[in-house]
Design goal:
Blueprint (H helix, E strand, L loop, with lengths): L6 E2 L2 E2 L1 E2 L2 E9 L3 E8 L6 E7 L1 H4 L2 H13 L12
Antiparallel strand pairs: 1-2, 3-4, 4-5, 5-6
Length: about 80
């Protein structure tokens, strides 16, 4: 989580340029939120936050970032920011 992040009850409200709208799903390795850009223009995104235990698996995180940033298809999620 980024510094300067506001939280309520342990859940983030703002992450960088995005406001958390709602929690979509939570699992063993991550939690996914619906977010909206709060600066510049309107954009709705899915924000995936890895759980602390998962952060130990940096190789898996690096692999996922490389894969997502290489996709250019409207039917596949793409990496906007890390």
């Amino acid at each position: 989580m980024q510094s300067g992040t506001e939280t309520t009850g342990g859940e983030p409200q703002v992450l960088g340029s995005f406001r958390i709208v709602e929690r979509l799903e939570s699992g063993a390795s991550c939690t996914v939120y619906l977010g909206e850009r709060i600066e510049g223009f309107t954009q709705r995104v899915a924000i995936k936050l890895l759980n602390p235990v998962t952060l130990v698996l940096e190789k898996e995180l690096d692999r996922e970032q490389r894969l997502l940033s290489s996709f250019e298809n409207t039917n596949i999620v793409r990496l906007l920011d890390q």
